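Regression test case RT-17, inverse folding.

Input:
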């Protein structure tokens, strides 16, 4: 089984899993990501409650295991100031 290693970023209120936009397309879920996720450059930051789960389940369906590494925790994540995924 293939493995994808991803970084999980968080602040006291929420968390996001960082993934490449091309990975969303590869998994066929780019249209399933909500406006509660964010984008900067070629990276999407998938909100933890639904979008990250959608990604993990789609990867699992393709025989890929997603491993998460904890990123830095901040009082207020800069991810909140990135463009909403719905603007992509």
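Golden output:
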């Amino acid at each position: 089984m293939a493995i994808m290693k991803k970084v999980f970023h968080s602040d006291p209120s929420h968390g996001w899993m960082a993934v490449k936009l091309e990975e969303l397309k590869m998994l066929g879920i780019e249209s399933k990501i909500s406006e509660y996720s964010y984008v900067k450059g070629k990276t999407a930051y998938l909100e933890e409650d639904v979008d990250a789960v959608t990604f993990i389940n789609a990867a699992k369906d393709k025989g890929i295991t997603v491993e998460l590494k904890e990123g830095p925790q901040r009082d207020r994540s800069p991810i909140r100031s990135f463009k909403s995924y719905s603007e992509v």
